[in-house]
Amino acid sequence: MVLSLPPMRLIATTAALLAAGGVGGWLAQLAHLPMPYMLGSLFTSGLAVLLFQNSALAGYAYPLRFRTFFIGLIGVMIGTQVTPEILALAPDLPLTLGALVGFVLLAHAGNFLIFRHLGGYGRATAFYAGTPGGLMESLVLGEKAGADLRLLTAQQFLRIILVITFLPAALSLWVGHPVGSAAGPSVIDTAPVPLAALWPIAAVAVAGLVIAHYIRLPAGQITGPLLLSAGLTLGGGVDLHLPYWLIATAQVVVGASLGIRFNGMTPAMLRRSLALSAVSVLFMLALGGAFALGLTALTGIPFLHLMIAYAPGGVTEMSIIALSLAANPALVSLHHVVRILLTVGFMVLAERRLPLAEEPAE
């Protein structure tokens, strides 16, 4: 049984991990890597596990409530992307959003086959590693079903890493200049935000988390603050502009928490996960491209907009790419939020109705 650290040592260890994560994020940003602060923090946290899992990090567990608050802040940020301009797309939304049901089901089914039969994963690990979204929820439900958390963490985060690496690179070649992640933070408003303006942001995050907890909202850590923020933004009475440094801090916190979960993963296991993730991501991007082509023919919405909307990467990064291309960020954000909600909803239903207890693949 792993014993928890004394409070002061827990705080000091977490602070050290976050400081190292911030440096890693800064270096990743200088290198123009996608989702730099989350990726950089994940790398430094994983490196710390490799070096200190039997010494300084022995008995360490990342503080989940601390992480949950920052996930709530990310939810608030995403909610601010839902603006009144989305109403102009109302006639086409039932079709494009409805098609997401088919996309999520087909993507998840294909990924399950890839991880179960090509990767040889157990049933629960293959099922939760193959979800096209809902990273946090897949880890929680997968752990409950007995899945291998090391493999789950690797596959889910590699999904995001590869999507936000492949797609911006491909789009940069398409349009002839760096976009999204490859463009760095220049597409984000970095204007100073008064400290007094941060209190409403924190209040909405906390209120959204509390409401989501009491009504048992799926993916409540992010959807509660997201929906509350979206409602306030559409109402027009509250300005919930998040400064770039706060978004970067939230990514560092989440990235560090994920890196800690690589405890016990061998280099061979990581190489195997990377190969499987490449197959999975290419499959999902091809599937998303097919849906985008069909919907473009039916609705007239540009293919590029729908391709970004159907790419199963991080909501934040997909929104940044959309902003950099003027590709209707409201449309993109809405589709990614719905994709996550659908994925989490299907996971909850599957947990209750399907035999997902872990067992070795045949």
Task: Give the key terms.
about 350 residues, mainly alpha, about 70% helix, about 0% strand
Helices, by number, come to 14
Biggest β-sheet description:
none
Proportion of strand residues: under 5%
Category by helix and strand content: mainly alpha
Q: How would you describe the shape? A: globular
Query: pLDDT under 50 segments (min length 5)?
Result: 180-188
Could you estimate the helical fraction of the residues in percent?
Answer: over 70%
Helix-strand topology string: HHHHHHHHHHHHHH
Average pLDDT figure: 80
Number of strands: 0
Radius of gyration: 20 Å
Separation, N- and C-terminal Cα atoms: 31 Å
Explain this structure to me?
This protein is an all-alpha fold and 362 residues long. It is built from 14 helices and no strands. The chain has helices spanning 7-30, 36-52, 64-79, 93-118, 123-129, 135-144, 149-175, 198-215, 220-235, 244-260, 267-299, 303-310, 315-324, 329-353. Helix 2 (36-52) runs parallel beside helix 10 (244-260) and helix 7 (149-175) crosses helix 11. Residues 180-188 have low confidence and may be disordered.
Secondary structure blueprint with pairings:
Elements: H1 7-30, H2 36-52, H3 64-79, H4 93-118, H5 123-129, H6 135-144, H7 149-175, H8 198-215, H9 220-235, H10 244-260, H11 267-299, H12 303-310, H13 315-324, H14 329-353
Helix pairs in contact: 1-2, 1-10, 2-10, 3-8, 3-9, 3-10, 4-5, 4-11, 4-14, 5-6, 5-7, 6-7, 7-11, 8-9, 11-12, 12-14, 13-14
Care to give the gist of this entry?
It is built from 14 helices and no strands. By secondary structure, the chain is mainly α.
